[in-house]
Amino acid sequence: MQIYIQLIWAYLKIGIFGFGGGYAMLSLVQKAVVEPGWISETMFTDIVAISQMTPGPIGINSATYIGFVAPGSVNPALQGIVWGLLGSCLATLAVTVPSFFLVLYSSHFIRQHSESGAIKAIFSGLRPVVVGLIASAAIMLMNAANFNPNGIKWQLWTNIAICVAAFCLVYFPIRLGKKTIKLHPIWIIIAAGAAGYIIYGI
């Protein structure tokens, strides 16, 4: 049962200190769940991918999934749907409840003191930190588990090409005659899934 207390404590910290949204808190989540050995690095990257593709914030989605699998991976006696659902509920509540009350209070406080020089100064310091945390998460995910899980060289270069292509298609607008369009990330996700099936599944 200790794993449930650890889950609650880990996600309470993530919920309180997870500034900048889901991507910014990825390094915090990774430290909380991979280092204790609850899940592997490969499973963590899979969870991130699943959390990105499913509706809802990535932090909450990952908490629900990790809460489900962690008890069974730590203690075989806790394998099963009931124990997994208990872990999911506890982790999800632990990550959302602190955020709810922090947002409830801070939004009221910031609205009252929106012209305060101290508040503006604090946000001037927080904005670049959020960018740094997101950049850290991006670099953290550039690992063998994402790009070369099987240790095969051609798969490494194929995955790098998919990554670069996805970045270019999302970031750079495409000119079609006189019109300029930017592809929606959903289409990139669908195309990447199709490419993965064609390259690795057939």
List unreliable stretches of 5+ residues.
none
H/E element string? HHHHHHHHEEH
Number of DSSP helical runs:
9
Sheet/helix structural class: mainly alpha
Compute the number of strand runs. 2
Strand content: under 5%
Any idea what the radius of gyration is? 20 Å
What's the N-to-C terminus distance? 43 Å
Q: How are the strands of the biggest sheet laid out side by side?
A: 1-2
Overall average residue pLDDT: 81
Helix fraction, binned, reads: over 70%
Largest sheet: 2 strands, antiparallel
Shape: flat
Structural account:
There is one protein chain. By secondary structure, the chain is mainly alpha-helical. Helix content is 74%, strand content 3%. The protein has 9 helices and 2 strands, in the order H-H-H-H-H-H-H-H-E-E-H. It has helices at 2-17, 26-33, 41-53, 58-74, 81-112, 117-140, 144-147, 153-171, 185-201, and strands spanning 174-176, 179-181. It has a two-stranded antiparallel sheet with strand order 1-2. A hairpin with a 2-residue loop joins strand 1 (174-176) and strand 2 (179-181). Helix 1 (2-17) runs antiparallel to helix 4 (58-74) and helix 3 (41-53) packs antiparallel against helix 4 (58-74). The longest helix is centred in the middle third of the chain and has 32 residues, at 81-112. The chain starts with a helix and ends with a helix. The mean pLDDT is 81.
Give short descriptive properties of this protein.
202 residues, two-stranded antiparallel sheet, flat
Give the topology.
Layout: H1 2-17, H2 26-33, H3 41-53, H4 58-74, H5 81-112, H6 117-140, H7 144-147, H8 153-171, E1 174-176, E2 179-181, H9 185-201
Helix pairs in contact: 1-4, 1-5, 3-4, 4-5, 8-9
